[in-house]
Amino acid sequence: MRITANQKQEIANATLVKLDALANRRQVWQRDFYDKSNKALYALLSDCLGMYYEIKGSSAEKVVLEGIKANLEGRGIKVQTSTPVLTLIVKYVFNAERRRASAYSRALRVAAKESISVGNFAEWVIKVGGIEEVASTKGITDETIKKRSQLDNKVAEVKQLLVNQLQHPLSLVPKTALAHPADSAEYTLLIGKMLASGQTQVLSVVPGSSGAMIEQAIRKIAQELLNKVEEHVKAQAELAAQAAITEAANQAFFKEMA
Q1: Contact present, 159 and 218 (Cβ < 8 Å)
Q2: Is 10 in the same domain as 126?
Q3: Which pLDDT tens digit goes with each residue over 88-98?
Q4: Which of 48, 133, 228, 237 meets the CB 3.0–4.6 Å disulfide criterion with 129?
Q5: Whether pLDDT at 179 is above 70
Q6: Which residue, 89, 114, 140, sits at the end of a domain?
Q7: Which of 140, 159, 189 is the last residue in one of the domains?
Q8: Beta bridge partners of 174
Q9: Following DSSP, what letter does each residue of the chain receive, concatenated?
Q10: Of the candidates 159, 211, 168, which has an alpha carbon nearest to the alpha carbon of residue 189?
């Protein structure tokens, strides 16, 4: 059903109200949680993705985008005719400097290309490795999907290994004033210095280690274990190839002798 110009304008106005609400949430995040909570950032970005799905392809898209551009220009933010829809949304909500806005919009474009739902956006970003990692990709290949699956499986293994390791910890770090009784996280992080001998000097507990920080550390362990397996398989393949070459050379030599 076709809608009138007035109806399109009403939709545009309602969309700008939603974007203003998102921008207000961004201000709260930037004031209270910036550099502290990826969870809050991912929630904002997932809602930006939701606004994109709502705007893109709608009968009022042109009018909505004109309203967004007019608002941005009124704030002194430069936009071009060719500026992508997601970049317009990010600039509207985050009022961000160019580099950060570009990273956010690139990440959201990858999400839209892969039809990531609003509800699954945060989990998807975490699995990929963060906004910058998503922004640097051009999409998911079959090989990427395979590697992610391997990493997810290895993460589960590492978590179980950590549980088993509780019976035989590498060491016990003395109680410190940095760790508060209120810190009820199951795990925490430590900062240490690597020595030339390969040993590590544990220097401090990291207070307030968030679940996201712990999860990232576990994924780092899992990835390193996968790398070690890959190196071993590659080394074995090289040895087998060298043995085959040597065998072929030996056979050729003895054939010539005969």
Answers
A1: yes
A2: yes
A3: 999 999 886 67
A4: 133
A5: no
A6: 140
A7: 140
A8: none
A9: ----HHHHHHHHHHHHHHHHHHHHHHHHHHHHTTTT-HHHHHHHHHHHHHHHHHHTT-TTHHHHHHHHHHHHHHTT----TT--HHHHHHHHHH---HHHHHHHHHHHHHHHHTT--TTTHHHHHHHHTSHHHHHT-S---HHHHHHHHHHHHHHHHHHHHHHHHTTS-S--PPP-TTS-TT---S--EEEEEE-TTS-EEEEEEETT--HHHHHHHHHHHHHHHHHHHHHHHHHHHHHHHHHHHHHHHHHHHHHHH-
A10: 211
- Give the pair of three-digit tokens for residue 154: 């290895």
> Whole-prediction pTM value?
0.51
Q: Is pLDDT of 160 > 60?
A: yes
Are the C-beta atoms of 112 and 131 separated by less than 8 Å? no
Residues 158 and 66 in one domain: no
Closest CA to 214 of 42, 40, 38: 38
Residue 251: per-residue pLDDT? 63
Are 42 and 125 in contact by the 8 Å Cβ rule? The answer is yes
Cβ atoms of residues 75 and 69 within 8 Å: no
